[in-house]
Design goal:
- Keywords: ATP-binding, Cell membrane, Membrane, Nucleotide-binding, Translocase, Transport.
- One of its GO terms (molecular function) is ABC-type transporter activity.
- Belongs to the ABC transporter superfamily.
- The structure is a single chain.
- This protein is α+β, with helices and mostly antiparallel strands and 372 residues long.
- The chain has two domains: 236 residues, 3-Layer(aba) Sandwich (Rossmann fold), CATH 3.40.50; 109 residues, Beta Barrel (OB fold (Dihydrolipoamide Acetyltransferase, E2P)).
- It has ten helices and 19 strands.
- It has a six-stranded mixed sheet with strand order 7-8-9-3-10-11, sandwiched between helices.
- A hairpin with a 2-residue loop joins strand 10 and strand 11.
- The chain is globular.
- It starts with a strand and ends in an 18-residue tail after the last strand.
- The relative contact order is 0.12.
Length: 372
């Protein structure tokens, strides 16, 4: 399977530039998620890869073949790129049976009948829809229709599979099932997959690599662990995570902010341009008092303001030094509202950002930055 390379790609609609200087590589056999809020440019990027949108400038290559480059007037038509595209809507033919829908692409390619039937049966069996071959799309559930749409694409054995928010029309349980199905498909077929989503958990659970985008710009490219544990900037830190990351804005007058400033000045005197600190809710724990803090821990007195059960986990609201922060725990809390404790955070769990919102890398690598 080929990889995909975008070099200095821009896409403009008149005066509006939707994609700015995008450099991105998708490795052979990789599962890449384009993640970001609505309007960030992720679907536009996918459509350029598919050939449904032309580049305004830059170069797009699949393997060694340049498929779009305005500077050299190179453009390969979508149907000649060896790609399969699954839309948010399943786009199944309502008057064709499931078997006829799955073999549709093979018929267009004039594949011999015997080979076509074998390929169709194999892919339907792989996706667990072979028993529905004589039914019509209207007789299937949303999850089953999604499997048919995937089967239709996989039947033609595309070099690259492009998925544009294909799970957004499913309910929570079916989304979970289809995530597992997509993971299994990727493991089995080793197809290069580019998956567009605004759902961070889809990206975190499915992708080998995540490309976080915002306002047409690539914010960070990395593994799910990189994106979550070492966000390249505040946008990534605040976009990924539920409950969201706690942000302490420096320059304020709150006691907690002042304590954080003193802590970082002592631990990392080489850092001068601190604008804010982010703390993931699950990185926080409660201890009885200051004496329970380990050497190098950051902590402060806190009052338990609220305990919010979410089913399997608990969100605890803490009032500390004039600031509200939230912690998350999967262990039933022994504290009650109004209890006074100390919270603690290990130094490596502090995400430190400069005044521009970019992650700071400390001299001892405690605040290491992911590739951006």
């Amino acid at each position: 399977m080929p990889g995909i390379t975008l070099k200095n790609v821009k896409k403009s609609y008149g005066a509006y530039e939707a994609i700015h200087h995008l450099d991105l590589e998708v490795a052979d056999g990789e599962f890449l998620c384009l993640l970001g809020p609505s309007g960030c440019g992720k679907t536009t990027t996918l459509r350029m890869i598919a050939g449904l949108e032309n580049l305004s400038s830059g170069e797009l290559a699949v393997g060694e073949r340049v498929v779009d480059c305005p500077e050299t007037a190179s453009f390969i038509a979508p149907e000649k790129r060896g790609m399969g595209l699954v839309f948010q809507s399943y786009a199944l033919w309502p008057h064709l049976t499931i078997e006829q829908n799955v073999e549709f692409g093979l018929k267009l390619r004039k594949v011999a009948k015997v080979e076509r039937q074998k390929c169709t049966t194999d892919v339907m069996q792989s996706l667990g829809i072979e028993q529905y071959r004589a039914r019509y799309p209207s007789q299937l559930s949303g999850g089953q229709q999604q499997r048919v749409a995937l089967a239709r694409m996989l039947a033609v054995n595309p070099d690259v599979l492009l998925l544009d928010e294909p799970l957004s029309n499913l309910d929570a349980r079916l989304r979970l099932e289809m995530r597992a199905e997509l993971k299994r498909i990727h493991d089995k077929f080793s197809t290069t997959i580019v998956f567009v989503t605004h759902d961070q958990w889809e990206a975190m659970t499915l992708a080998d690599t995540i490309a976080v985008m915002n306002e047409g710009t690539l914010q960070q490219l990395g593994t799910p662990d990189d994106i979550y544990e070492r966000p390249a900037n505040r946008f990534v830190a605040e976009f990924v995570g539920s409950p969201p990351i706690n942000i302490l804005e420096f320059g304020g007058t709150g006691e907690l902010v002042q304590e954080a400033m003193r802590f970082l000045a002592k631990q990392h005197p080489e850092i001068f341009d601190i604008g804010s600190v982010g703390i993931r809710p699950e990185a926080i724990s409660l201890v009885s008092g200051k004496e329970a803090l380990a050497t190098g821990d950051f902590g402060a007195p806190a009052c338990v303001a609220a305990i919010l059960p979410t089913g399997g986990s608990w969100i605890i609201e803490l009032e500390t030094g004039g600031t509200t922060i939230f912690m998350n725990t999967h262990v039933a809390p022994s504290v009650r509202e109004g209890d006074r404790m100390w919270f603690r955070v290990e130094a490596h769990a502090l995400n430190v950002f400069d005044t521009q919102g970019d992650r700071i890398r400390a001299a001892d690598d405690a605040f290491s930055v992911a590739a951006a």
